[in-house]
Amino acid sequence: MTNSQSNFNFAEEFRQRTKAFALRIMKLVDNLPTTTSSRAAAAQLVRSGTSVAANYRAACRARSNREFAAKLHIALEEADESVLWLELLNENGVLPAGRLDDLLAEAKALMAILGKAEKTAREKVRKDI
């Protein structure tokens, strides 16, 4: 397998992973209680959680290394925001303890991957200059 094939496979697998994350977020939000605070957090979480996938897809369509790095940064910010909303829901006791652990772990894993990818992309941009 060539390096470009490997990169393509990773990109496609990560696209599917971020899409699966977005779907999990949507299902969670649909099952949250209808309290005022839950609705507010749900609205923010569904925006940020689905934005991770949307912005990663946009990064995959980037026209330059600079644009790729910028889109990855946006996806990273959205993943970080998703972590915040999940932590707030978790700490607020809206759901039973432990219910959000897997989703929170996935959000943090996405952040780690996006952070590493952005760093690599930014290094490429510096080399291009």
UniProtKB/TrEMBL annotation:
Classification via Gene3D superfamilies: 23S rRNA-intervening sequence (1.20.1440.60)
Highest rank taxon of the organism: Bacteria
Annotated NCBIfam families: four helix bundle protein
PANTHER family: FOUR HELIX BUNDLE PROTEIN
Protein name: Four helix bundle protein
Organism from which the protein derives: Hymenobacter lucidus
